[in-house]
Amino acid sequence: MSLGLLLSACGSPAPGPVAPDSSATTAGAGSGATPNPAEQARQKVEASVEKSLKGVSKPSTDAVRKAMQAAVGPGVTVEVSNSVTPTGLEADAVVAAAVVVPKNCVFVYLRDGAVSTAVLPTLSNGKCFVGDQGTPRTGT
Q1: How far apart, in whole angstroms, are the C-alpha atoms of residue 43 and residue 54?
Q2: What is the pLDDT of residue 5?
Q3: Where are the beta strands (DSSP E) in the chain?
């Protein structure tokens, strides 16, 4: 039965965007609710990356890394997917992530000039991505 559940999970569609939950805000001491630290970090990263990559429909891994690093500051490790596939084709999208709030990653998804962000928990190893992204590849 466990094998059946495992196999059925493999065929499930990818999850949709992360919906904010009640923990996304905390009550403020006056003017209402304020975003929690993870949400504040997500908003800051999204605004910074959008500004840095405005008008770039297919940013390179290096451009995304620089924009993300500028958003999160020095000393924060930034993980970025490759913008070129192993066969030399441009990737459809580039994903970047960084641990900016303990036990939370801010993910940035860039596709066709649009920026989407989400806050997700870190993996058990403290990182955001599964596996090693390796050396960024460059196109020809």
Answers
A1: 16
A2: 36
A3: 25-27, 33-35, 78-80, 94-101, 104-111, 114-121
